[in-house]
Specification:
- Helix 6 packs across helix 7.
- The chain has 2 domains: about 110 residues, Probable inorganic polyphosphate/atp-NAD kinase, domain 1 (Rossmann fold, 3-Layer(aba) Sandwich); about 150 residues, Tumour Suppressor Smad4, CATH 2.60.200.
- The protein is an alpha+beta fold and about 290 residues long.
- One of its GO terms (cellular component) is plasma membrane.
Length: about 290
C-alpha cells in the first residue's frame, strides 16, 4: 500500500510560479511509490482544511511549498500531531530554510523533504502565537510592513524599502525586559526575538542562535544608524559594541512605552506594547540533509 504524503502549496508566495516544482514533486512521488495529495492554500480556513486532510490521509510527512509564513501555518495546524515537515523553499522570506541549509537545488530538496531524516527544533510562543524563526519589534517590523504595501517586489523592492524605512523611522522606544529573574530598562530601535541565526536574506542577526537548545535570544539593537546597519548587513554584527546587547533565556516579558510595530517570521502583525515570550523545546520535526 502506498504511503500518503500531503503537500501544502502556497500559490502566491514569493511571486513565483509553482507549476514546475509541483510537476517535479509528482514525478518524484511516483518514482518513490508515494501517493501525493496536493493542497493549495487560499487564505480561508487553511489551518482547518490541513487538519482535515491529515485526519483523512494520516500522512506521516507534510511537504510545505512556500516561505516562513506558510511553514508556520502548517506547524500551527500540526501542533499536536507527530509529523515531519519537509520544506521546498518558495517564499519571499525563506529564513528557516536558510538556517537549515536547505537553499539547494530542487532535486536535492525533493530528496530531503520526502525521504530524509529529521531534526527536532524549538518553537517560540509570543502572546500564544508561534514563531519558528525570527520575530522582532521596531525598525525591521516597519520595513516588513512597508515592503508588504510596496509595488516593487524582490531584492530591489526590499532594498528600497530598507533605505526608506531607515530614514523615516521615528525613533527609539523604551523597553522593560524581564528575563532570567532580572528586569532591565533600555532604549532600543529594534528587539529581535530569535530562535536561529539568520534572516532570509542571509544576514546574521543572532550569532548565538541554536534552534534546538531550549533557549532563545533577545537581540537588543540600541542604535541602528547607517553605520551600524551597514555592519549588520555586511556580516559584521557588532556584538562587542555598546550598540548591541544579547540576552539568552527560555522565558521573557517585554513591555514598551508606546505601541511598536511587530512582525513574526516575515509577516507584519500590527503594533503591541506587551509581549509574553516562551520556548517550547523540540516541538517540531523538520527534514534536513
Amino acid at each position: 500500500m502506498r504511503k500518503n504524503i500531503i503537500m501544502v502549496v502556497n500559490p502566491i508566495s514569493g511571486d513565483v510560479d509553482k507549476s514546475e516544482l509541483i510537476e517535479a514533486a509528482l514525478i518524484f512521488s511516483e518514482k518513490e511509490n508515494l501517493n501525493l495529495v496536493i493542497y493549495n492554500t487560499s487564505g480561508v480556513n487553511d489551518v482547518v482544511n490541513i487538519k482535515t486532510l491529515h485526519k483523512t490521509y494520516k500522512s506521516e510527512r507534510i511537504i510545505v511549498v512556500g516561505g516562513d509564513g506558510t511553514i508556520k501555518m502548517v506547524a500551527e495546524a500540526m501542533e499536536k500531531e507527530n509529523v515531519i515537515l519537509g520544506i521546498l523553499p518558495a517564499g519571499s522570506s525563506n529564513g528557516l530554510a536558510v538556517d537549515l541549509d536547505l537553499m539547494l537545488t530542487l532535486e536535492e530538496n525533493l530528496k530531503i523533504a520526502f525521504l530524509n531524516d529529521y531534526v527536532e527544533i524549538d518553537i517560540i510562543t509570543i502572546n500564544d502565537k508561534i514563531s519558528l524563526h525570527l520575530s522582532d519589534l521596531g525598525l525591521n517590523a516597519e520595513l516588513v510592513k512597508n515592503y508588504e504595501n510596496a509595488t516593487i517586489r524582490g531584492k530591489l523592492g526590499y532594498a528600497l524599502q530598507a533605505l526608506n524605512t531607515l530614514m523615516d523611522f521615528e525613533g527609539p522606544f523604551t523597553a522593560t525586559i524581564t528575563a532570567n529573574n532580572q528586569t532591565i530598562n533600555c532604549v532600543a530601535r529594534m528587539i529581535v526575538i530569535a530562535n536561529s541565526k539568520k534572516y532570509g536574506t542571509g544576514v546574521v542577526i543572532n550569532p548565538q542562535g541554536v534552534m534546538n537548545d531550549g533557549m532563545f535570544e533577545l537581540v537588543i539593537l540600541k542604535n541602528l544608524d547607517l553605520y551600524v546597519f551597514g555592519q549588520i548587513i555586511s556580516g559584521n554584527m557588532p556584538i562587542e559594541s555598546n550598540d548591541v546587547e544579547i540576552i539568552s533565556t527560555n522565558q521573557a516579558t517585554i513591555k514598551t512605552n508606546f505601541p511598536v510595530s511587530f512582525q513574526m517570521d516575515g509577516e507584519y502583525c500590527g503594533t503591541e506594547t506587551e509581549y509574553d515570550v516562551e520556548i517550547l523545546h523540540k516541538q517540531m520535526k523538520v527534514a534536513i540533509q
